[in-house]
Amino acid sequence: MILGVVGDTHNRLSNVEKIIDIFNEKKVDKVIHTGDITQAKTLSRFSRLNCPLIGVYGNNDLEEEGLKDIAEQNGFNFQDPPFILEISNTKIAVFHEPDKIENFLKEDPSIELIIHGHTHRYRNENIGNIRIINPGECAGIIKGKNSVGALNLEDLSFERIFF
């Protein structure tokens, strides 16, 4: 099972088109978005994905009703963070803001993988038995550093993909 991981798209439509092409070419099985889509028209572009899209809302997702409508129309599964799910026997928590992770782990120590966004900074590390990943940003704020990721749930290997 290969997960595409993306976050902080911030309404950059040209980058969203590139991201969709990357994930479709890699034939990922699902895509997880870590929030800050910002506008419904941005989320609607993800309808071109050849796989399911799941994710969380971020602090800049202020078009709440529009985003929820687009998610429902396209069969996307978006929730307020944390979004707890199990995929391929891996228990995953999806956050937007990383400052909420530490307290959450005290409540649910069974989490194996945390995926978050918000900081626009790449992160791929283990803290104890927990893998923490942030794919970086794809909003174009740090020119030339736009990235998404492909996460293999069999061995938790992570490929950072620049575009």
Automatic annotation (TrEMBL):
The cross-references to Pfam families, in alphabetical order and at most eight, read: Metallophos_2
| Residue ranges annotated for the Calcineurin-like phosphoesterase domain, each copy included | 1-153
Q: Which SUPFAM superfamilies does its entry note?
A: Metallo-dependent phosphatases
Which protein are we looking at? Calcineurin-like phosphoesterase domain-containing protein
